[in-house]
Design a protein that fits this description.
Elements lengths: L2 H13 L21 H4 L8 H25 L3
């Protein structure tokens, strides 16, 4: 074989690689509360929905914690 043909053959073999199996991503677990999932969907339109939803989740958690503290002080 002549040199250019060998070079072309080597390049063709180097360029061919086995097909990779496609990576299948499993659906992500929803973050935060069910009440704030709609807010998190704002990411699709360019608004930082996750940041807003995290703040709302924190406020809701704080309100529930305070409610539990008040119920513990004065049982009905």
């Amino acid at each position: 074989m002549n040199r250019p043909a060998c070079l072309c053959l080597l390049l063709a073999l180097a360029a061919c690689k086995p097909a990779e199996s496609p990576v299948v991503q499993s659906p992500a677990e929803p973050e935060g509360r069910a009440e704030t999932q709609g807010i998190r969907n704002l990411d699709a339109v360019g608004v930082s929905g996750s940041a807003i939803a995290d703040k709302v989740d924190g406020a809701l958690d704080a309100a529930e914690q305070r409610k539990r503290e008040l119920e513990a002080q004065d049982p009905p």
